Amino acid sequence: MTRPRFLPDNFTLTLIGVVVLASILPASGQIGVGFGWLTNIAIGLLFFLHGAKLSRESIIAGAGHWRLHLLVFGLTFVLFPLLGLALKPLMSPLVGNDLYMGMLYLCALPATVQSAIAFTSLARGNIPAAICSAAASSLFGIFLTPLLVTLLLDVHGEGGSTLDAILKISVQLLLPFIAGQIARRWIGAWVARNKNWLKFVDQGSILLVVYGAFSAAVVEGIWYQIPLWALAGLVVVCCILLALVLLIATVSAKALGFNQQDRITILFCGSKKSLATGVPMAQVLFAGSTLGVLILPLMLFHQIQLMVCAVLAQRFANRSETVAELMGQVDP
């Protein structure tokens, strides 16, 4: 039986199921504490495997394209936050203050790694540059996101300073990543051979955090705090934000003289926000009772960006290559 095209992917359906499960059977008390420890272990394993998967050769291959990387970082860490602030008169009335805070958190996050590279590859963009740009965005995000969250939301982590938040994120996310890079010489080939089932570690970690976050939020009455009109407004503001970033990324890349392959890379690396990084970071930066509300915009934006970018990547993939593209020349 053919899968209906209107259905989301399996992971998104599972994510929805986890939110429903947390709404009906939330983890609380000692069970919630134990679940939190399990989640932290899963997150550490997730970033350890990210470190083991990332090839240093791939990073070096794309590192020299500094103009492209500067534009991508500008889109990710400057344009998104500025749009989040500028659109407050539109966003805040549509979604309410709590979800607007979640939109600002979304704007402070680094770009995705896997999907940005996958879409760039499908669209026949500059893959080495995409690998380098996406990976660097994730690493820099460990330090930049807490700073941006402090500026945008006036949040300093769980009762500490911005430096404390960066230190805690570094311990929970960066150290496992570095350990994975060190272990790559011994386990890199095994990770590459088993990448099809290791993706469930990525997905499982996110599902654990989402279940724990929504369990705490349900205990605090999240579904009584967020009306249906605010959820509908959230869909609208996520679509507007993504459309503006895609438009500005396209116009900027063309105005700066990048060729077609580079423009594709800029489009897919500069317009994404990482669910895999954003959910674990939120667990460090925010208290449990507010976590569910703050990651809800990220979960929705993640699905919208995947669906929109899948369509765009397929359109790019179906194009006819020009002589300039084949020769690697810059478009006039």
What topology does this entry show?
Layout: H1 10-24, H2 29-53, H3 56-63, H4 66-86, H5 88-95, H6 97-107, H7 114-122, H8 127-153, H9 162-193, H10 195-219, H11 222-225, H12 228-255, H13 260-270, H14 275-285, H15 288-317, H16 323-327
Describe what is shown at a glance:
With 332 residues, this protein is mainly alpha-helical. Helix content is 81%, strand content 0%. The longest helix is centred in the middle third of the chain and has 32 residues.
Structural commentary:
There is one protein chain. With about 325 residues, this protein is an all-alpha fold. The protein has a single domain, classed as Up-down Bundle (Na+/H+ antiporter like fold), CATH 1.20.1530.
Q: State the CATH class.
A: Mainly Alpha
Number of H/I helices: 16
Radius of gyration: 20 Å
Distance between the termini: 48 Å
CATH topological fold name: Na+/H+ antiporter like fold
Keywords: Membrane, Transmembrane, Transmembrane helix
Protein name: Bile acid:sodium symporter
Transmembrane segments: 7-25, 31-49, 70-87, 99-119, 131-153, 165-183, 204-223, 229-253, 274-300
Pfam family, one: SBF_like
Question: What brief labels describe this structure?
Answer:
332 residues, Bile acid:sodium symporter, single chain, mainly alpha, Na+/H+ antiporter like fold, transmembrane helix, disordered C terminus, Put_Na-Bile_cotransptr
